[in-house]
Structures are given as structure tokens and as C-alpha cells.
């Protein structure tokens, strides 16, 4: 079942009948020539320039931008997007360079293509003062194999300021998954080969300004098997707003199968404060894919996929007391087909009263997948709503990420929809956070005559003024799109 869970969580991450409000369709644009090797196409607004998109409901596309290497090999794939604290700059991270865009216009401010990026980057973060951008990814070295590599960039220019690597004690690969800023530190986690302990969680903290390694914390579960069955990706690490605690989650080998394992560390020292595990009563495989901390720092929530004897694989969301690790509540979601569900991204409402999870769920027709987005009360786990979104023609719809707007009126989920075979498109959906009502939808797909149409969004972020930035792979390169809800 390991392969099965890995697949389900991948499409659920970092994942209703569609009720559409109003209507406004964008036209089909002309097709430009492909940009030169290693270049970006200019940002354009509306629906112009080499792609097609349809917006339904009160939302407007502000701009789109592309980057592609132009070489042979797999498409250039953007994995993460983070926005500066002032909201003015968006940073896109992926298999090519780091790219900084003006959030309002999409104007490219700089690209940073460092030798350390040759294996691709997986996650990004911005310092609290907005002066530094941090990125992490694997780098292969002849003597040590695959390592974590973390780079700090000057946010105004993209100039690399420091570069650090981490190699674990074992002979296998060290694979980073996520990075966060925590006060004066930047923290990276992932999976790492241990010495006689199989694969462990490994969390590394650096001084944000100098790159000096402050501490390393490794977690080997009670069964001393493989930890991080699913190297959970950009959502597997979180820090509280004070920057005093960091939390790691993933899958850990238990007595009968994998269990959720969530570990809390003191950010200043790396001291482990608690470990909490979760296993379905059937003792099958349970793999946590995402962790988040409430705005007040009181509650930690994890979500992922959990196997059951009666309902196949469910979404399971578990809340803990952030100070002690005591379990506060568990809620499971089983879709109409009682087949396969998995949630892999979490966001809290700005007031902390609700927590939202999203992912992918099989619909009433077995094998056909929908977005599933669920709202729970933070304190007691009361399910406030659960909304399924099924795209055009009833094809597969896989949610990847979600974000909440700073004013509490916006909840956005992004991922992909497949309206016809081999015609994958970005799908971005806006919800009313209070009710789950679908307010608008927007799709985006590459249509260049020289490339595949396949497009898949991987990450979304919302700026302080409400600009929604989505990124992923579109055709053969990065595709980044910005939207604004119009009411």
C-alpha cells in the first residue's frame, strides 16, 4: 500500500457539484512563438498571449507570466510561490531559477539561477522583514550523494548571500521537503538516511542572516523503520507566528503500518518538546501530509490520508494542543464512493476560528476524482461544511494547495482539472469561508502549437491586498497567473 498512499497524497497536495455565480468568459488568444532558452515571456493581463483561460463569477485575471529553459528533457515545473510581507513581490520556486515578480503587474524583477539549483528547488520562504528569500532543494555530490541544499537570496536583487548543505549520517539520500522562516532562523525539514535507523525525519536550523547551522534534530520512530514514507512536501513544516516553535509531520513506521507522526521543536535550540502519533483503529497505513499552527499558537493541525478496512482511504485531520501535543480531536472524511480520499494542504482563517483542509476525493463514479475542501471548527473539530468541486465534463480534479485572504472573506483552492484526455488545466476556485459556497472559478491552460497542453497548478498565495498568485507547470515551463476577486 506504500505506492498507493504516495500517489493519493501527491494528487491531494500539497486537491460538490459546481455552483457558479455569474458568468464572464475570457476569449481564446493567439499563439506566440516559444520564448528563447532560459527566458521568460512578458507578463500580460486579461486573456492575451499564448494561453486560454475561462473565469466564471466575480474574478478577474490580472496577469500571467511564463518561464521555460527551451532545452530537452522534462518540463520546467514551479513548485511553490511565496509573497513578501508587504505584498509587493511574489517569488516563484521550482526546477529552474527563482523568479521575482511584481505582484500587482507581473513585471519580472529578477531571476536567480544558482549552481546549487541544478537538482531543482522544492520550497521557498521569506524573512519577516522581507529582506531575504530562502529556498531549498536536493543537490547531488560525488562523495556524499543527495544532500539538502539551502540558499539565502537578497530579496531586492536575487543575489545569493549564503549557501549551506546538510548530509545525514547514513549512506542514503537526504531529501529536503519544506522550508520556513522562524524568527531569526530559517528551518528546513525532509527525510534523511540514518545510521542503523533506516530513513529518519531530519530538521535543520540556520541563522537567517549568516547561514550558520544552529542545530539538527532527527526523529526515528519507535519501530525504528522508515520515517517520512511520503516526504510530505511544502506543507510538512510549520512555525508559529512568534517564531518560537516549529512543527514537522509525515509518515512513520508503526507496529502495523505507517502512522501520522508530528514532532514539536523549540525553535531556538531544536529541543524536542513532544511527539504525537495517530493511527486508524484498523492499524493500516496513515500518512500525514501537512501541518499548520493556529494564529494564536494554541492549536496544531495535521491532515493526510488514512486507510480503513471499511472505507478504503479517508482524509483524516487531527488537532493537538501546541504546547503539550495532547490530541484535541480527530475528524475523518469518506467520500460518496467509499474509495480513496486524501487531504494535503491546510490553512487557518485569519481569526483562527476555522481551519480548512483540501485534497482529492473519488466521486460517486469510481475512479473520477473531485476537489474536496472541508472547514472545521478549530476548538472542537465541528465540521462546518464539506464541499466537492467537479470540473467541466466530470473529469478528474486534483487539489494541490489552498490559501486564505487576510480579510477573512476569501478562501482559494488550486490544482488541476482534466476536462478531456490529455488536456490538463489549472483550476482555481474561490469559496465563501463561512459557508463553502463556490463564488467563482478560473481555469488556465497552455495552448502553444509547439508544446503539450498539460498544465497543473501546484501552489497558491494571497497578498495583503488580496491579489491571488498561482503557479505550477504549464506546457513545458513555469506558468504563473494572478487573479483578483472583484466582489
TrEMBL record:
Residues 60-201, 204-347 form the Pyrrolo-quinoline quinone repeat domain. Residues 33-42 have a biased composition (Low complexity). The keyword Lipid metabolism does not apply. SUPFAM superfamilies: Quinoprotein alcohol dehydrogenase-like. PROSITE patterns: PROKAR_LIPOPROTEIN. This is Pyrrolo-quinoline quinone repeat domain-containing protein. Residues 26-56 are annotated as: Disordered. It holds the Pfam family PQQ_2. Residues 1-24 form the signal peptide.
Amino acid at each position: 500500500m506504500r505506492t498507493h498512499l504516495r500517489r493519493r497524497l501527491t494528487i491531494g497536495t500539497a486537491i460538490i457539484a459546481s455552483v457558479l455565480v455569474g458568468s464572464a468568459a475570457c476569449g481564446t488568444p493567439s499563439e506566440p512563438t516559444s520564448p528563447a532558452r532560459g527566458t521568460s515571456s512578458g507578463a500580460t493581463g486579461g486573456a492575451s498571449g499564448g494561453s486560454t483561460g475561462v473565469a466564471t463569477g466575480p474574478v478577474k485575471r490580472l496577469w500571467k507570466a511564463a518561464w521555460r529553459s527551451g532545452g530537452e528533457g522534462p518540463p520546467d515545473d514551479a513548485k511553490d510561490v511565496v509573497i513578501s510581507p508587504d505584498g509587493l513581490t511574489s517569488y516563484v520556486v521550482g526546477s529552474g531559477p527563482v523568479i521575482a515578480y511584481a505582484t500587482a503587474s507581473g513585471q519580472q524583477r529578477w531571476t536567480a539561477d544558482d549552481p546549487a539549483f541544478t537538482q531543482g528547488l522544492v520550497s521557498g520562504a521569506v524573512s519577516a522583514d522581507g529582506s531575504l528569500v530562502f529556498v531549498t532543494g536536493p543537490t547531488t555530490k560525488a562523495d556524499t550523494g543527495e544532500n539538502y541544499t539551502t540558499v539565502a537570496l537578497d530579496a531586492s536583487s536575487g543575489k545569493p548571500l549564503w549557501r549551506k548543505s546538510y548530509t545525514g549520517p547514513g549512506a542514503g539520500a537526504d531529501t529536503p521537503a519544506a522550508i520556513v522562516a522562524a524568527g531569526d532562523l530559517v528551518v528546513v525539514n525532509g527525510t534523511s538516511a540514518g545510521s542503523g535507523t533506516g530513513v529518519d525525519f531530519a530538521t535543520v536550523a540556520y541563522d537567517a542572516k549568516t547561514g550558520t547551522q544552529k542545530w539538527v534534530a532527527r526523529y526515528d520512530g519507535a519501530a525504528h523503520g522508515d520515517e517520512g514514507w511520503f516526504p510530505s512536501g511544502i506543507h510538512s513544516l510549520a512555525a508559529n507566528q512568534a517564531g518560537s516553535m516549529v512543527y514537522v509531520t509525515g509518515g512513520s513506521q508503526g507496529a502495523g503500518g505507517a502512522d501520522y507522526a508530528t514532532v514539536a521543536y523549540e525553535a531556538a535550540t531544536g529541543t524536542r518538546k513532544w511527539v504525537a502519533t495517530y493511527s486508524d483503529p484498523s492499524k493500516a497505513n496513515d500518512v500525514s501530509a501537512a501541518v499548520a499552527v493556529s494564529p494564536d499558537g494554541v492549536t496544531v493541525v495535521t491532515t493526510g490520508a488514512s486507510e480503513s478496512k471499511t472505507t478504503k482511504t479517508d482524509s483524516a485531520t487531527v488537532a493537538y494542543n501546541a504546547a503539550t501535543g495532547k490530541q484535541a480531536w480527530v475528524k475523518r472524511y469518506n467520500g460518496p464512493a467509499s474509495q480513496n480520499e486524501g487531504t494535503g494542504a491546510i490553512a487557518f482563517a485569519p481569526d483562527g476560528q476555522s481551519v480548512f483542509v483540501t485534497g482529492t476525493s473519488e466521486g460517486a463514479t469510481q475512479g473520477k476524482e473531485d476537489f474536496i475542501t472541508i472547514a472545521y471548527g478549530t476548538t472542537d473539530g465541528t465540521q462546518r461544511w464539506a464541499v466537492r468541486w467537479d470540473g467541466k465534463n466530470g473529469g478528474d480534479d486534483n487539489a494541490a494547495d489552498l490559501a486564505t485572504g487576510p480579510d477573512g472573506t476569501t478562501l482559494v483552492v488550486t490544482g488541476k482539472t482534466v476536462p478531456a484526455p490529455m488536456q490538463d488545466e489549472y483550476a482555481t476556485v474561490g469559496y465563501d469561508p463561512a459557508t463553502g459556497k463556490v463564488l467563482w472559478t478560473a481555469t488556465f491552460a497552455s495552448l502553444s502549437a509547439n508544446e503539450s497542453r498539460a498544465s497543473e497548478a501546484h501552489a497558491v498565495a494571497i497578498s495583503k491586498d488580496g491579489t491571488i498568485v498561482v503557479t505550477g507547470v504549464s506546457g513545458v515551463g513555469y506558468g504563473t497567473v494572478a487573479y483578483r476577486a472583484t466582489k
